Amino acid sequence: MDINELQPILEAIIYVAEDPVNPEQLKEIFPDESYETIETALRKLMDEFNSRPGGMVIREIAGGVRMTTRPEYHEHVRAYLKTKPGARLSMAALETLAVIAYRQPVTLAEILAIRGKKSSTALKTLLEKKLVAIVGRKHVVGRPILYGTSREFLVHFGLKDLSELPTLEEFAELAGEQH
To answer: Is 26 strand, coil or helix?
Structure first.
């Protein structure tokens, strides 16, 4: 199949997918196509789709691609849907999530040492929302559980990977601007 035939099919699949679509899933759908052909068609689709002035974009998120509304139209879409922002995380949960995102893998005791506050309830909330996952055990006495962010964390925050997190310096600048 040629790249121009593959592109509209990829667009349709990405449109109906609930989660980001990764190259392995596409390879299963097109077993006769090489990864290179699929990647080339996907890249060309993204370039062409994202260069038009429409309300949607195709973005790389959590190891796959997903069709999303353009961020600049978020408030208009929210007004149309008459929705409020999704269930917000408490300040304790956000602080705990930030510690995990920037210091992972990290133990509960290490989170406590950084935050200076008990974090077990916030951690439980983050685990329930699947924003955080157990990634192993630390090789020390007691073998405490290690926590890290999950794929759902990347999807929820629209990140391709952890390298897209703001640096701590950028984060401090953003926090300073809001005061």
So the answer is: helix
**Is-contact 105 147, C-beta < 8 A?**
yes
* Domains of the chain, start order: 3-80 (1.10.10.10), 91-177 (1.10.10.10)
Q: What digits encode the pLDDT tens for the residues 33-62?
A: 999 999 999 999 999 999 999 999 999 999
Specify the DSSP element, H or E, that contains 81. helix 74-81
111-150 confidence digits (pLDDT tens): 999 988 888 899 999 999 999 999 999 999 999 999 999 9
Range 91-124 burial, b when 16+ CB lie within 10 A, else e: ebbebbbebbbbeebbbbebbbebeeeebeebbe
Angle CA 61–67–70, to nearest 5 = 95
pTM: 0.65
CB 137 within 8 A of CB 173: no
Token pair, residue 29, equals 């759908």
